[in-house]
Amino acid sequence: MIYAIGNDHGGIDLYDSVKEKLEDLGHEVIHVGTNSKDSVDYSDFAQKACQKVLDGQADFAILICGTGLGMSISANKIDGIRAACVSEAFSARMSRAHNNANCLCIGARVIGNETAKMIVEEFVKTEFEGGRHQRRVDKITEIEKR
Ligand code: RB5
Q1: What domains are defined for the chain?
Q2: Which residue owns the Cα nearest ligand 1 atom 5?
Q3: pLDDT 10s per residue in the chain (146 long)?
Q4: Catalytic residue at 103?
Q5: How far is the C-alpha of 121 from the C-alpha of 21, rounded, in Å?
Q6: What are phi and psi of 54, to 5 degrees?
Q7: Which of 102, 23, 8 is nearest to 64 (CA)?
C-alpha cells in the first residue's frame, strides 16, 4: 500500500517514526511536507495528502499536527475522506474495522513515538469489516452529497 503523509511544524517530530513503521511493514510512503519547524498551516498539508488519496496516488493518508485535531477537522471537510483522530491503538483499529477510515490523524504533542507506531500498525493491519458497517459508511457519504 501507499501512504501519503502530511504534517505541519507541530507534527514533524513524529514523522520519522511513522515513516519507519510503515516501511518496516512493507509499505511505501509519499511525504507531502512540511520538512521544517517553520510555522505553516495544517490545512494546506491535510489537503495535499488527502488529494493523493483522491487521485489514486496513495491508498491512505496519515496526517500529523500538534494535536491531530486541526488535521482531522480539515480532512473531514474533503468529500471522500474519512479521517479519524486517535491517540490509542484500539481506536485506530476500529476506525478501519467499522468506519473504513482512509485517513489517520495523530498529535505529536499528545502521544509519543512508540504509541504512534502502535497506532500506525493497528491502522495498517486492520481491514474494513463491511456488512452493517458499510450501510453506515454509505450514510456518511449521503451526508456529503447534501
Ligand atoms: C500548531 O501550533 C498547532 O495548532 C497545530 O499543529 C495543531 O495542533 C492544530 O490542530
Answers
A1: 2-145 (3.40.1400.10)
A2: 66
A3: 999 999 999 999 999 999 999 999 999 999 999 999 999 999 999 999 999 999 999 999 999 999 999 999 999 999 999 999 999 999 999 999 999 999 999 999 999 999 999 999 999 999 999 999 999 999 999 999 99
A4: no
A5: 7
A6: -65, -35
A7: 8
